[in-house]
Amino acid sequence: MRLRLQRRRTLTLDGIFVSDILIGEKLLRLIVLLIVLFMIACSTRNAIVSYAIVRGDAVNVRSDSNLASKRIRIVKKGELLTLIKRSDHKDSIEGFSNYWYKYKNEAGEEGWVYGSFLTLYQNIHPNAGLFINKFKSTVSNLFPLVKKSSNKYTRYGGNYNDYEITISVEDGILILNELEKYDLREQKVTSVYILKDDRLFQIYRGLYPSFNYIESNCFITINSSGVQTYDMDKILNENFTSLPGAPFEQISELKTENYFFEYETSTGYILQKSKINKLIEKKYKLTNCKLSNLAQ
């Protein structure tokens, strides 16, 4: 004789089974929970806790993440800001394309600053000492360094002509200019380093002198041969150390002919100037690290 177990289902006065009501309540609670989690994710999607150094001379702070909002104060070059939020989308202003960042300082003041006038640091309080300590431990551990000023060093027994370190915390880079000597010749070379994942990471090596700048994850270098741009999100060789160029994918290049190039840090434009009269012949804008000529 087989026993058949049956689950009892109790009818309500409305003709609805109690078990169906319980299932409906559980489903409703699950839906509410998913909605709450979605709202939390949306509200914290662009919330960040990081640090930034102001690299513009006098940068406007605004009440919201757009250029039309009220200007409430300024921050000056070298100020340390604690970032707490990032705008949803990038904003194009003149030659720049970057996010807005909301900050809070030690006085409790808050406001929004455009990203192109900041150098971002992830979870570290940046200073020149931090850069040089990383350099000593990873690059120059075979010989001592001598401090020449607050942000300049040289090799012990050397001078600026053959070995010079310059640290720009505002631009987020350490630059090493050194004289490489061979049997029959010598050549000045520049190497550029940034702080990445708690270590000093070389991002460029080339002929000295050169102008080097980072704008929204695009590395820009201007030297006697022209201008090159590299996408820092596209690493090709992280172990790159001594070859000319950069470990990133090169996006654009302009060769020097009867003109030279300058980067305008206040607007983000790359200017092509005549070698004869120094007048601007063309303006170039960076879009996703690619140079595009603007109509004059």
UniProtKB/TrEMBL annotation:
Q: What is the species listed in this Swiss-Prot or TrEMBL entry?
A: Leptospira mayottensis 200901122
Record Pfam families: SH3_3
Q: Where are the transmembrane segments?
A: 30-54
The cross-references to InterPro entries, in alphabetical order and at most eight, read: SH3-like_bac-type
Q: Which residues form the SH3b domain?
A: 49-122
* Keyword check for tRNA-binding: no
Q: Which keywords does this Swiss-Prot/TrEMBL entry list?
A: Membrane, Transmembrane, Transmembrane helix
Superkingdom is: Bacteria
According to UniProt, the name of this protein is SH3b domain-containing protein
Q: Which Gene3D superfamilies match?
A: SH3 Domains
